[in-house]
Design a protein that fits this description.
CATH superfamily of the largest domain: Ribonuclease H-like superfamily/Ribonuclease H
Largest sheet: 5 strands, mixed
Strand order of the largest sheet: 3-2-1-4-5
Distance between the termini: 64 Å
Oligomer: single chain
Structural class: alpha/beta
CATH architecture of the largest domain: 2-Layer Sandwich
Helix content: 40-55%
Shape: elongated
Length: 194
């Protein structure tokens, strides 16, 4: 495919750490859309979510257009400077993610340009991140609202249960199953005491 492949990536976390998602877009010359994607990745940090967006976009390019010239655009100075080698990578998870990015970059045969842009110039990828986060939060709040409608609970109990449910979800995502089970037992006990 002629032209320059432009990869825009982003990631975000509501809470940092908190519910997180990534987004990416691949275009020809920034105009013709080839691929875009987004996804919810659980509770983590902004930086991990940013790396995930970059990794997903790079994986697509390696599989579909490994010989084309590529321009990578992101609004995280930390991630851009880490993949360019200007900043060191010290945290365990970020080290692994950076290694995966470097591996994918080596698989691209064309020239690769990496550029930081202000957040306002990365709006398409940012929209995808927010779409994934909104879809995740919407599903959770709809289910929660259905459960609460079945019980006539005071507002302070509803708030306490909401916090406990979110903490249980976080525990499950982090593999802390015993903690999650304990929290869910608290919820069950609270509902049965009403």
């Amino acid at each position: 495919m002629p032209g320059l492949n432009v990869l825009e990536f982003d990631g975000g976390s509501r809470g940092n750490p908190g519910p997180a998602a990534y987004g990416y877009r691949v275009t020809i010359d920034g105009e013709i859309l080839l691929e875009e994607g987004c996804g919810y990745i659980g509770r983590t940090t902004n930086n991990i979510a940013e790396y995930r967006g970059l990794l997903e976009g790079l994986q697509y390019l390696v599989e579909e257009y490994p010989n084309n010239n590529v321009k990578i655009i992101g609004d995280s100075q930390l991630i851009i400077k880490q993949i360019q080698g200007e900043y060191s990578v010290n945290k365990g998870e970020l080290v692994k993610l950076n290694e995966k990015v470097q591996d994918l970059l080596r698989q691209l045969e064309g020239t690769v340009e990496i550029e930081w842009v202000p957040r306002e110039q990365n709006g398409d990828a940012d929209e995808l991140v927010n779409k994934a986060l909104d879809e995740y939060e919407g599903k959770g709040s709809e289910d929660y609202a259905k459960i609460l409608k079945k019980h006539n609970l005071p507002d302070e109990v509803k708030e306490a249960l909401g916090i406990t449910i979110q903490e249980s979800i976080q525990d499950i995502e982090e593999g802390k199953y015993e903690e999650a089970e304990s929290r869910l037992d608290e919820i069950y006990g609270a509902l049965n005491s009403e």
